[in-house]
Amino acid sequence: MSSPVIAPCLGVTDTDVTVAFYEKLGFTALPGNDDPDDDLRVLLFEGRFALMVHRAEHLRKWLPVHKDTPVGAFGMFYLGVEDFDAYVERIRPLVDVIKETAVGGREILYFTDPDGYVIGVNQRQEGE
């Protein structure tokens, strides 16, 4: 697996809950490292790196600058899928849809994960 240029690592309330949520959406979770006391997890989508999740309390210890930062983010992440319609049909009952729109003819469905992170799903384009 090649490393992405930027690798998001999200602070989450409960790593097990977050991993279970993303696995229902078709992600695969891998351990982030060999330390049994560290709950860092790497999430793949369609065999490709997508993001990492780390329990907020552990992430705050790792980077104390985050000590007062709430879980969740201002902004959004995008997930490009091979078949937008089929994927959205599959996940719709599993997520809290917050917006559906189209930009430049490209459909986007936004939902939140258990910690309030916003994910926008769209059709993967050639070369992505």
Work out the strand percent.
Answer: 35-45%
Percentage of residues in helical conformation:
10-25%
Low-confidence stretches: none
The CATH fourth-level homologous superfamily: 2,3-Dihydroxybiphenyl 1,2-Dioxygenase, domain 1
Distance N terminus to C terminus? 16 Å
Q: Encode the helix/strand succession as letters.
A: EHEEEHEHEEE
CATH architecture: Roll
Structural class: alpha/beta
Q: How many β-strands, per DSSP?
A: 8
CATH topology: 2,3-Dihydroxybiphenyl 1,2-Dioxygenase, domain 1
Count up the domains: 1
Q: Which strands sit side by side, in order, in the main sheet?
A: 1-4-3-2
| Number of helices in the DSSP assignment | 3
Q: What gross morphology would you assign?
A: globular
- For this structure, what is the CATH class? Alpha Beta
The largest β sheet comes out as:
4 strands, mixed
Average pLDDT number: 89
SSE topology:
Elements: E1 9-12, H1 15-24, E2 27-31, E3 41-45, E4 48-55, H2 56-62, E5 77-81, H3 84-91, E6 96-103, E7 106-112, E8 118-123
Parallel strand pairs: 1-4, 5-8
Antiparallel strand pairs: 2-3, 3-4, 6-7, 7-8
Walk me through this protein's architecture.
With 128 residues, the protein is of the alpha/beta class. It has one domain (9-123): 2,3-Dihydroxybiphenyl 1,2-Dioxygenase, domain 1, CATH 3.10.180.10. The protein contains three helices and eight strands; from the N terminus they run E-H-E-E-E-H-E-H-E-E-E. It has helices at residues 15-24, 56-62, 84-91, and strands at residues 9-12, 27-31, 41-45, 48-55, 77-81, 96-103, 106-112, 118-123. The strands form two sheets. It has a four-stranded mixed β-sheet. A four-stranded mixed β-sheet has the order 5-8-7-6. A hairpin with a 2-residue loop joins strand 6 and strand 7 (106-112). The protein is globular, with a radius of gyration of 15 Å. The mean pLDDT is 89.
